[in-house]
Specification:
Number of strands: 5
Order of helices and strands: HHHEEHHHHEEHE
Distance between the termini: 56 Å
Helix content: 40-55%
CATH superfamily of the largest domain: Elongation factor Ts, dimerisation domain
Strand content: 15-25%
CATH topology of the largest domain: Tetrahydropterin Synthase, Chain A
CATH class of the largest domain: Alpha Beta
Number of domains: 3
CATH architecture of the largest domain: 2-Layer Sandwich
Number of helices: 8
Shape: globular
Radius of gyration: 19 Å
Length: about 200
């Protein structure tokens, strides 16, 4: 199947990735846009993993204040070079993630920050809740509840409010692939008048 310039343009608008990456993904999936998106997400994850040991020497601090003026978030999005940190798309990404954090109020940036005792307490609660479930399914139910609980509290695992098909981790990995640098959320603080 021949890939049309319009298909490439559509995929590029959704991902922000290069024409060649978009064309290649569409060719691999016989022009199926949704499958091409999955191919590009996997590629983004692999690209981000390769860059994970690089030094972060630049970045941007962005704030988002809700229209009600009673809540907001300050976020530091780090990268390797000033060249990327000054890019308007990079700055917009930091702002969008700060807006997301304002709306979702995450407790942690990544799962590794969650204390073992918090996970143990959650597991104990979910074990009690699952006590009346069939024994052979109990462990899977408890594990699912723990993952769901962490997904709500960990910023990187939350579904992005502007596009729930993507997680914040997906956004950061896509940016890492697009800019060719390691990108990481270094700090995130949410503030609220109401606690």
């Amino acid at each position: 199947m021949a890939i049309t310039p319009q298909q490439i343009k559509d995929l590029r608008e959704r991902t922000g990735l290069s024409v060649m990456d978009c064309k290649s993904a569409l060719e691999q999936t016989d022009g199926d846009l949704e499958k091409a998106l999955l191919v590009l997400r996997k590629k983004s994850s692999a690209a981000a993993a390769k860059k994970s040991d690089r030094t972060l020497g630049a970045g941007v601090v962005q704030a988002y204040i809700h229209a009600s003026k009673d809540m907001g978030a300050i976020l530091m999005l780090s990268c390797e070079t000033d060249f990327v940190s000054k890019n308007p798309e990079f700055i917009t990404l930091a702002h969008d993630i700060a807006m997301h954090a304002t709306a979702t109020s995450p407790d942690f940036i990544k799962r590794e920050e969650v204390r073992e005792e918090d996970i143990a307490k959650a597991k104990q609660l979910f074990t009690e809740e699952a006590a009346d479930k069939p024994e052979d399914k109990r462990e899977a139910i408890i594990e699912g509840k723990i993952n769901s609980y962490l997904k709500e509290r960990v910023l990187m695992e939350q579904p992005y409010i502007k596009d729930p098909s993507l997680s914040i981790k997906d956004l950061v990995e896509q940016a890492s692939q697009k800019f060719g640098e390691r990108i990481e959320i270094s700090e995130c603080t949410r503030l609220s008048v109401h606690g």
